[in-house]
User: Which sequence fits this backbone?
């Protein structure tokens, strides 16, 4: 057909995708056309608004760098990341709840020994983290790689700070669980922080008059063979942004009471230099499969 | 609210946009969330599929350069550009039909005198174009800037070829109508061509087993004060891709019979070097307002 009435155009575009080899891709693309065309019709999108959307998407892609993923951030603030999480984790069966990966995951971290301090050279209140990885029955899972990462006392991830490429990782490491499923490390207490607002997503946050804050948390990515990869955070109880996380990522079960201690020794027997916080958490994995996410940063995409 | 059931999440995200200052932006964003969330639910989008989408969008943004707009191309091949065109041009009242801007518009062109050859130095069959701009009553509109651009005999636009930045425009110019609404220029006959397939949109075309071809055409952008800007093409009758344009852009009224002539003189009295094609078209503008589109290229977006 050569010329389409407005009402025929959508069907013609959907028909043009009929020969897509992969049936799942065909469904995803045809439903995408249906959704986007319906959106354009329902809103009567103007040419100027379309232009602004093209410009916004272009700048979002161009803001991505080897250490920043602006499209994930966009997905996060529109609640899409948490919805994808929800539709893929409908039955937890007692497994630990999941939440967003976030835009600051940079791929597999450098392994460090138990007890290591991942905050070397940084200011902040001292924290000791003890975690354990088990199956649904509470049986320990040993030899499991656990990537951890979190923001510093000013609310920035290492990859957001100048000189990251040369300095290398900070507040970011991999630990492998021991035979009892345990891992432990030292760090500083993370604080609540704004998502990066110097890009297109920041413009969106400003225009919608939302605050850009996330409550304080530590990211964990636990990937054991034979189990679903667990992408989650542990949030710190009492944070003022727990009820209005800009990426809708908080789940009650993931909020942990952090104990303030003044014992002169930390749990591994080494001396504490003053008061310190103890974070403990047990991660329960669900049998399954899947691979840990690969970082989707601009350099990887080139 | 701290933790959302899957069913509550969409409402919570929509509610978070309630304070958006601009009411139209508020509607556009809230409906976007509704559409995208519905899409994720309807398709049960997996985490791996979400990852691929993020990667695809990132690479699409990063493929944009000062002379290439991959997001417009994506909008074009999904029929979104033509749908935006359709919903904004429901009543033509006899005005010339519109079609896609396409990804090769680079902004206001350099003015050239009537009769100028915009194909200098290029191989191809010779063409003479005569056009006229009028209002709906057929009254000539003088002093109107008309941007024209088209592909070469190999199917490439100037901006797709190496050395474009240094060489400057080719097959691309602005003409201003005379008192009788007329303009005329020399060029070569454009041919049908594939859209650029070396980027993410090309991957999509390949995966969907569509052909990447557009039928031969010349772009016109006519912007007269007091009239709606007219973004259109003139297509060449007989082209084999008129019925399957990869961007769904063909309208019957825009297909023009091109006459092959062997007169020794072209219409402006200058000598022809051999047989030549005559393209004629009359553009009828609708009263209205609006500004001509600005180019949405990566450099402009930085």
Assistant:
């Amino acid at each position: 057909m050569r010329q389409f009435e407005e009402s025929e155009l959508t069907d013609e575009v959907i028909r043009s995708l009929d020969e897509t080899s992969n049936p799942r891709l065909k469904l995803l693309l045809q439903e995408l056309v249906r959704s986007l065309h319906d959106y354009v019709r329902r809103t009567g999108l103007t040419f100027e608004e379309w232009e602004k959307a093209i410009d916004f998407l272009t700048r979002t892609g161009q803001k991505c760098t080897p250490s920043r993923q602006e499209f994930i951030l966009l997905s996060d603030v529109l609640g899409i990341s948490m919805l994808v999480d929800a539709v893929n984790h409908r039955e937890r069966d007692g497994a630990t709840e999941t939440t967003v990966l976030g835009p600051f995951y940079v791929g597999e971290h450098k392994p460090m020994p138990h007890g290591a301090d991942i905050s070397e050279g940084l200011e902040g209140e001292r924290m000791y983290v003890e975690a354990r990885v088990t199956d649904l029955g509470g049986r320990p899972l040993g030899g499991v790689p656990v990537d951890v990462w979190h923001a510093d006392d000013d609310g920035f991830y290492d990859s957001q700070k100048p000189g990251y490429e040369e300095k290398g990782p900070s507040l970011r490491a991999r630990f492998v669980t021991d035979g009892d499923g345990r891992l432990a490390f030292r760090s500083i207490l993370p604080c609540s922080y704004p998502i990066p607002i110097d890009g297109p997503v920041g413009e969106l946050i400003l225009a919608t008059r939302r605050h850009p804050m996330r409550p304080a948390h530590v990211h964990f990515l636990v990937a054991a063979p034979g189990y679903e990869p667990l992408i989650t955070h542990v949030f710190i109880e009492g944070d003022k942004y727990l009820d209005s996380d800009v990426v809708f990522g908080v789940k009650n079960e993931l909020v942990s009471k952090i104990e303030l201690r003044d014992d002169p020794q930390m749990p591994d027997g080494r001396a504490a230099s003053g008061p310190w916080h103890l974070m403990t958490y047990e991660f329960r994995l669900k049998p399954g499969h899947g691979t840990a996410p690969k970082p989707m940063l601009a350099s990887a995409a080139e």
Q: What stands out?
A: Chain B touches chain A through 83 residues (CB under 8 Å). DSSP finds eight helices and eleven strands in chain B. The mean pLDDT of chain B is 92. The CA atoms of residues 272 and 288 of chain B lie 40 Å apart.
